[in-house]
Amino acid sequence: MSLNKFLRLFTALVLTIIPIVSVAQVRSVSGRVTDSSGGAVAGAVVMVEGTGTYTTTDAAGNYSIKLPSGAKTLLVQMMGMEDARISLDGAQTTYDVSLQDSLNYLEEAVAIGYGSIIRKELSSSVSSVHSEQLIERASAFNVTQALAGKVAGYTVYNTSGRPGGSNTVRIRGLGSVNAGSSPLYVVDGVVDVSIDMINPNDIESIDVLKDAAATAVYGAKGANGVIIVTTKTGRTGDGRVTYTGSVGVSSLARTYKEMTGEEYLKALRDAYAYSGSVFDPYFTTPYEKLFDYEKNPDGSYATDAAGLLIPKPRYNTKWMQEYYQNGLTIDQNISFSKAGERSSVYASVGYKSMDGIIRNTDAKRLNASINFTSHLGKVADLRIGANFSSSRQNRNDILIDGSIYHVVFDNIAPFIPYKYEDGSYGQQDDHLTMSSNYDYNTMLDEAMHRRRTTQTVLNAAIDFHLLPGLDLTVKGDMQSHFSSFEQSAPGGISGATISNNGFSNIANSDVHRWSNEDYLTYRKSFFSDRLKTTSVLGTSFYYMHGESSSGGGTNYPEGYGGYMYMQDSQTWDSSSSGYDKQTMHSVYFRTNLAMDGRYLLGVTLRADGASNFGDNNKYGFFPSASAGWIVSEEPWFPVSKDVVSLFKLRASFGQVGNAAIPSYRTFDRLSLSGEMIFDKTVESTATLSEPGNRDLQWETSTQYDFGFDLSLWNDRVNLVADFYNRDTRKLLYQVQVPSSTGYSSTWSNIGLLRNRGYEITLRTHPVDTRDFKWDVDFIYSQNITKAVDINGDKIYNSLTPVLSVEGEEWQQLWVYKCLGVWQLDEVEEADVYGFKPGDIKLADLNKDGQLSDDDRYLLGRVTPKHEFTLVNTFYWKGFNLMVDMMAKTGYWLYCGRWSNQYLTTDNIHVSANYAWTPNNQGTIFPANRSGSDKWGWNGRYYDAECYKGDYLKVRNVSLSYDLKYSLLKNVRSVSGIALGVLAEDIYTLTGVPALATEDSGWGDAMGVVGGTYPRPMTISGTLKITF
Amino acid sequence: MKRYITAIILAAVSSVMAVSCMDFLKEDPKTFEQPDNYYNNEAEIRMGVNGIYSGTRMPLGSTGIGGCEVIIFNEMMCGYSYRTASPFSDLTEVLNLAISADNGFPAAPWSWQYSDINRANKMIDVLENKTDIDISVEKRNMYLGESYFLRAWMYSNLVRYYGPVPLLTKPTTGFNDAQVVPSSEADVFGQIIADLEKAETLMENEPWNSPEGRVSKGAVKAYLAKMYLTLAGYPVRDATAYQKAYNKALEVVRSGEFSLYPTYEAARLGYNVNGGEYLFSIQCMRDRYQNPLHMLSIPRKDGTLKPYISMYDATRPGGGWNPCTEFVNSYLPGDRRVANHAFYYTSQVSLDGTVTHDFAPAVYKYWDDECAQDGKSGMNFPLIRYADVLLTLAEAACAGGSTTDADAIDAWWKVHSRALPDDVKPASLSFDEVFRERIWEQAYDGENWFNMTRTRKAFDCVQGTVVDLIGYTAPEMSSAYKESDLLLPYPVEQVRLNPNLKK
User: Fold this and answer.
1) What is the pLDDT of residue B446?
2) Is pLDDT at A232 greater than 80 in this prediction?
3) Which of B50, B310, B495 should one mutate to test binding to chain A, selecting the residue with the greatest count of A CBs within 10 A?
4) Min Cα–Cα distance to chain B from A732, Å
């Protein structure tokens, strides 16, 4: 369908569904809506049941509504509160309404983008999380971490423990290969906000839109799920000040056994004996710097039976103890909330500071936000919001040579000290057989790697109440996001700045976005309220403009001072700049119909245009539909309402687009950055670097979802279950092309990626009395991502055994089968493969006499197949105890470090103590060997290095007590005070021998343990006071 | 009243929605150049042609396997070198003459050379067809000549490594016909010769030598001579090409523009001069593009990974290639090339002057005093050496047999007498003598493997005789060369992407 045709259709639709209603106005009533504590409730919907007439309360909770003839009942609805129905009788003109906080999960309003809907009438798949659940983790620096495990189908990968570290979030699996796969964050209607910069304390609720029917309304950007964040607004009448704070200590949660100096020396001795070459110098030449030698009575060096010296290590360094520390976590928030006659305001300031458990890593963030609403007579409502945040992150653990500290921290032999008596650092190549000398310690301590970010989000919206039931919302927002990466190091650090006298560089990025949304909302009931409809028709414009620049310098004269002194560097290098602009335009229509309170239908149609596609393919058209049937509302439904309060069947189907690729991929590119030397003179080059594809178009995912909602015994048990299938086609994919074209890949639309899974959310209240309550929440999800068609490519990172193969699940471990170690009586057999006794023995599965990639077999997936969360919450007389446990199962992790007995480049794991020797043949650990000895490994990853990733974790235990319940019951000036203790990540049950065991990666390589900053165990105290 | 306002607002909203947004969605890149808007003047043309030169860096390019350069592969294939740096399976396959398709060595040259072939095709297309370039005819011819030469250079590497290869002479504009069927070796050589002859014509008025290190007339003619000689040998065996090779090499020699340095030390120190003994070189520069050969040639201490001559916090501590004893001993008695610190060295005084280290022979051909201080070598690496031109002249005259041609004998004598000045100049010269001289002279130049496959001959360094390549077992090889060992397999990834790549 062409765009113009689509627009004409829309316009026609608008005109048909918006009859200009004119009803004789008889009289009007007014009143005030309050919450259970007497505070004003702003924004509550007050409607005359059976008609299309409604209004909303102003900031002071006041409303006034004209009653059409025949009006009998007022219905008052507010998100998070129970509905209230008031019978209108005779001449009374004032009705004050007190709303009860909603315990009823079915009646809560769910944000679905451009409006909300009550959960009961929802026919698509949306999960909600409320504010109090978001701040129960003191060590969660940002919202993505706070949300982990709260929503079925929402998965956080690379759960880094680095302060301020960001996470990889996926909703319902992996939606794309090369285009973006992250969900869209919408904060108060502002699309594409960098969520890491939002203070979880400012958030009222989060709604996660999962199926296509739900995300379709953000279709252009919503293909990977949408996370709608609603921040707090003033709503409690008189000015109220709330302070929340916590102070905590974090520490390394897990350790493993490290090699001792003595053990390492023995491994060396074995290694050189095995390799049969010259013995290590320590055994033939005294090296008193590191060893004490046994001496004869006459003072000469003693020797053992083999004629070798007998060294004893002088140092025995436990690197884990040297480098991991306890960190302090501080969180302070103060907020003010007030709602008056015509307006409301919410303002907050928050500060969070967090030390890492690795030295010189920390993060600090300052947030300030203000939300203001005003009721402009009967014509319109105004909302204005501003959110500012600034953060600084020291990430020195990402070292200047590119290594990651927690991967390399123990790369120095244990018989070398952290520092010698004279204060000098122990160096890697104090161990004389080292081939390299990377001074990771000095890099961690003396270098700087910092990231600073500042974000401002401004938004303003006006709702015009044009006609009864018809609103026009005009919204504008602006975001500015500035970030800066700074790195510098003084000269003389081995492995990094040894050959230059210090270096520094800085990279700035400045991104601005603005958007404009205009939409009409029309609510109308037909057939005496039997059919309720809500329709939205709108258009949006998104604009993103980014500029970046970077520069660096090396070789400082005396007085190196870091990146601020770049002008003093003798050599300037690596300066660059970038410019990026992306625009999008969308037109959308959504209608939700509810017939007889039991037949639900939602339809969304959109046309989206994105700048980064070819001229003929800029627009895509994405329809979706969802239907629900509340079976329990049928008159014939045989079970009593007291038993089954809700049984709803849902089905949805829809398509959404994805345009998350870099700009300008439709153009051929020339790179002018290269240089060529001609007789020691540098000349520039202009080389063809990337081929453009003028035919690029929308990546489209088609998703269907079947589910049901079941509520039993007055909502004491609520069950939501979903099955979904998402097929992403026309993948925006960097397809590999034959090199003879001069290129290696080009952006293209090909292939099919399929995500299929189940989700179950069970919320129960087994005990619900006045003094004692017990809630149990259980969440389960399963997702399988399958590479149905990826052009026959194999996608892998050569540093890992994780491979994605067409026709198989995405990212699985392909490894050699380990049969143990070649034994002394297998010399000839081993020699066929170039091995010898003591080398690792790998199976030649295809029996072709050589080990090749074809001998690998599929061990299993590297992403958890099953994810469980179980939260038990107990309330008893002001006490609140929560125990949050989680488990992930059904996957494998590669943990190769523990089986490579390749001495002299590395410190090694204690498994070297059990390595193969002629006297210890029954082991799976190959022989310790010298660095120049051929070794059996040769980059072949094998199964004995892989571990089942399954784990069970006590993620969160919190205990709090509400002093208002007893001690301070009668203190007027304080309206609420609660004290608490919080313990996070206190216990993990797993068989993976590593510090970070959940799921991890080197860069984007999932499934390899060792790359993730270990998550700390944190214990904190919390305080919340409301004045 | 309100109804009118409403109607107006609705109308306004509808019209906003109906606006065509193609202008709003238009992309206008401001951060990179596009080839369609480029190549307008000489400066832009020069930059485009400069870009093709990266293809000549291939021998020093690291294949990513153990940081191993392509030139190491070439020397290892000859069978007289071993490695003390950590071994790895790709190299083990080379020494076992069992190179599999997923070996890293074959993969690297393929994509590098084709990437630059596409750039050369683009520049040839632009220079021949774009009419509005602000450039003189002379300069246009010069840059076109350079482009043709460089394309021939890259195809000559491909055809000698892989045999039949896809022959593309137009820049890539799409990927629908990307699965190109390989052309026969004869066809590829036909294109190479045609390109070089074209370059020769275009550059006829240019100087013989380019002091700045660009392609010169001397380089074009010298390489044309070498390619004629290759055409006369395997696999095409066009016997008429011997005479062409002879004529072309003689033309270069008679120009009088080039000469051998009198000593090997002078020859080594002369790498950085474009001209003299070196007709065409990879241009290196200490802080921009370093020559790795000094570092990888350093001998290692037995039993440890540390180099003997530690002078730098090196991550590449030497041991990359070492000549085996049999090969070093095969040089004739008194040959100056095997004197300490000529082509090889067996002892070295430490940097602080306190200790003299002795070790098994190691390559000294690329020793760079500056690099010994800080690990950075800016020494050029010669791709076309005058000694090769002289030996090509002699070999072409022999035409597989022997010759009494005075120019040929004189050419060979220039090379031979630098090593053994006390010998007597012979009256006739056989192919075997020329070939043996090549192997000695060109050891560790990266050329000998091609000398061997072209002639199907090898130098048996134990017997001191020239033998058939097929069936010969070199000292470091675990088996004899077979016909199938002489070409690399097509890289496995490329076969998958282009199923037409079948041998």
Assistant:
1) 93
2) yes
3) B50
4) 16
